[in-house]
Amino acid sequence: MPSGYVSPLSPLLLAALILTAWEMAGRGLRALRGNRPRISRLAVGVSALALPIAFAGQLLLLQYQSGHDGPRPDWVGYAPLLVAYPGVQLGPLHPAFSLGALILAIVQTAALAGFVAALLQHDEIANDPARRLARTLTPYVAGVLGLLALWSPAVSSSDIFGYVGLGMLGPHPFDRPEHFFSGEFAHFFDARPVAPTIYGPLWTAVNAAVVAPGSSFFAKVMLLRVEGFLSFAVLSALVHRVTKSSPLTAAVLLNPFLWYQFVTNAHNDILGIVLLVGAVALTSRGRAAIAVPVVAAAGLVKFPLLLVGAVVFAREGPRRAVAYALSAIVLCLVCSAVFGGKAYVDALLVTGQLTADTSPLFKDLKLAIALCSVVLTAFVLLRGRFPGFGGFVYPAIAPIFFPWYLAWALPYALAARRGALATALALPVLGVLGDGLYGFHGFTLVIPLGALAWVVWSALPRPTLRAVR
Length: 469
Prior knowledge:
The chain is mostly helical.
């Protein structure tokens, strides 16, 4: 990322913090009500076509943008896939790419909402025709989305290539032996060296096993995508097991944002999210003690996920919740020390320094929001209350705000037993607005103002109707 980079996700996190602080203060947010439209079989059919078409359009737009949006770093030419990367100098078509991506995300959201609304329909008729059609089409549309995500010739992040390098280094990715890479790997990793990893020892071991069978750079990348595909299938199954909700399962299974970030770009957060949702499933069945090592395992994928995972114990009562959360933290720290050691800690510190923004004001703001996420976790554990927008505060504990961290809100919402459906539906649009690949840095500043307006509106006295004499 360019020096001084500030993610457009920052204002979104600030908006979430404003709304969360309001709820933590014991105040409610006035509901934004509206009548849900009646969904016909025709609307379901249109949604079934629009969803994969809009997702394919997003991937094709990304492919075109990779070669037509200003100069790119040298390492991009050695990558096995096309890369749309936010460069310092953007091309004249950049506003068009940004607007196109936002329009496609809106279409995706509308189509996804059509499926969800149809599945929510209950009628005097035993089996509503639109609902029945939506249930029938859901697995087929999901299959098409999955194939498109696997097929995509372009990515919007270099992380997937870094995973290959870390995997080739084996279960000890902290070593940097000279002349380790050869052939096509040497061309790429000489131009873009493998950075010190902040990923935990569980993920590094799994990642090494996944990429090992691949004989080429491209094959190793595709194996990572297949892993993301399988992990996403497990995530969808766990969501259904936790909620028994067809609409919510469809909102996850048909979500273009999730397919894009965790299969096309193959971000490793999916493994930690699966573990956290598994922990929610265990606690919902009275097995909180068994969930402790599962939450610890999520921290061994990415350390910040440990803080997100702590909230799954909130319904156990304050004392037990704190005890379980501390047990998971201690277990994660012990395993990190044993299997990661000093090199892992050093890598965490170095990466934090490398990715820190150069603006002192931004660094102070980021630290403040990160501390607020710690306070939020303590509040949830001690009070047993889940502020509705709290899940969107947690990306603040990452070194840099990236859009795929928005998915961390999903296990939070499932643990809260509220807001999971709205969270899933919001992801496609929020993912585009918060992505530094597009030009929404200024536009997203409006969102905290909207959050403040919502708080002010909620604080105003509600009018009362006087009896007419």
